[in-house]
């Protein structure tokens, strides 16, 4: 789930950068990209992957 959210944030950062949209400092393309990288790192670490598989 966090991987999908990261992909959405990367796409938004790409659109902000490609369209050369002027935003305030909070929603700049670099900040959105860094949020996406944080979510991607959490996804790779295994956080937010859903329920863990039960061991028998």
Secondary-structure topology with pairs:
Blueprint: H1 2-18, H2 29-45
Helix pairs in contact: 1-2
Walkthrough of the structure:
The chain crosses the membrane at residues 28-50. Keywords: Membrane, Transmembrane, Transmembrane helix. The chain is mostly helical. It contains two helices and no strands. The chain has helices at residues 2-18, 29-45. Helix 1 (2-18) runs antiparallel to helix 2 (29-45). The radius of gyration is 15 Å and the shape is elongated.
Instruction: Name the helix and strand elements from N-terminus to C-terminus, one letter apiece.
Output: HH
- The count of strands amounts to 0
* Count of DSSP H/I helices: 2
Question: Largest beta sheet, briefly?
Answer: none
The radius of gyration computed from the alpha-carbon positions, rounded to a whole number of angstroms, is 15 Å
Extract low-pLDDT stretches. Answer: none
Structural class: mainly alpha
Overall geometry: elongated
Helix content: 55-70%
- As a percent range, the share of strand residues is under 5%
In whole angstroms, how far apart are the ends?
26 Å
Q: What's the pLDDT, averaged over the residues?
A: 80
Transmembrane segments: 28-50
Keywords: Membrane, Transmembrane, Transmembrane helix
Defining key terms:
56 residues; mainly alpha; 2 helices; 61% helix; 0% strand; elongated
Task: Kindly summarize this structure in a few lines.
The protein has helices at residues 2-18, 29-45. With 56 residues, it is mainly α.
């Amino acid at each position: 789930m966090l991987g999908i959210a990261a992909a959405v944030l990367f796409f938004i950062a790409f659109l902000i950068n490609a369209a050369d949209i002027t935003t305030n400092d909070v929603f700049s393309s670099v900040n959105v990209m860094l949020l996406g990288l944080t979510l991607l790192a959490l996804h790779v670490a295994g956080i937010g992957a859903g329920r863990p598989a039960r061991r028998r």
